[in-house]
Amino acid sequence: MSASQSVLQASPGDQLVIRGHRTGEPERDAQILEVLGEDGAPPFTVRWTDDGHVSRVYPSSDIYVRHFEDAH
Hints:
By secondary structure, the protein is mainly β. The protein has strands at 15-18, 28-35, 44-48, 54-57, 63-66. The protein has one domain (15-66). It has no helices and five strands. It has a five-stranded antiparallel β-sheet with strand order 4-3-2-1-5, with no helix packed on it.
């Protein structure tokens, strides 16, 4: 894998974040509800924090995952 490639992996409960596309535009985030790819890979089913809408996301380069440790 080259330095320009990256593997996006997540687990249910992690947070998906989309960076703003323009200067001053805020990030948008969602809770990952379901991971549909193998070994944590996309696509993901998410619930958007701002409006509660549930959708399937096929991430691009402007998206990253915040991982949360299991609190148990």
